[in-house]
Amino acid sequence: MIPPRNFPPRRVKIRENVNEAIRVREVRAVFPDGSVEIMPTLAAVRKAKDLGLDLILIAPTAEPPVAKAMDYGQWQYENKKKQHEAKKKQHIIQVKELKFRPNTDDHDYEFKKNHAIRFLKEGNRVKAVVQFRGREIAHVDLGKKLLLRFAEDLAAHGLVEGQPRLEGRNAHVLISPVKAGSAPKEKPKDSPPHQ
Q1: Which of 157, 162, 165 is nearest to 124 (CA)?
Q2: Cα angle, residue 63 at apex, residues 62 and 65 outer, rounded to 5°
Q3: How far is CA 18 from the centre of its chain?
Q4: What is the pLDDT of residues 1-41, one digit of tens each?
Q5: What is the value of pTM for the model shown?
Q6: Which CATH number fits domain 19-73: 1.10.3720.10, 2.40.40.10, 3.10.20.80, 3.90.230.10?
Q7: 159: Cβ–Cβ under 8 A, 6 or more apart, which residues?
């Protein structure tokens, strides 16, 4: 026979802020019938158990803390659902990088410009980088001209954050998407005076 291993006994997981785990003297208890009472925590737990429900601490920072009598599993499910919905609605802004060389030809330039427009419309930032290799570093002015032209071509879709900067063997510029409503507006044409 195999001797039993010396595993520690499994601890019962205590659910925080539920029933007996609520560590406040009194709570504002909300019951399913709509009644709200300020009562001692143990009395509120007893009343919730009589209804076949759990007492869950909803707002621990309120004065006195608010607890609601409801099914714990249902409460967990609703919480997870809310978190999932909030996560679905948020948009993480990414920085998309496009690399050029000082002598990038027109076809490649147009191709990368179209990608940049798509990235900006999706709400992401674009970082255009011109890489200088070997003796190309002597022609930094060509790289800066290319970045300025790129920024000018994307003016309708994005705002340039500063001038092109040279760092080591790379020159770069950052372009942020234009927010809805903050696009440059055209001036209204002067209307003829009414007679």
Answers
A1: 157
A2: 60
A3: 30
A4: 666 677 776 665 666 778 888 888 889 999 988 888 899 98
A5: 0.50
A6: 3.10.20.80
A7: 175, 176, 177, 178
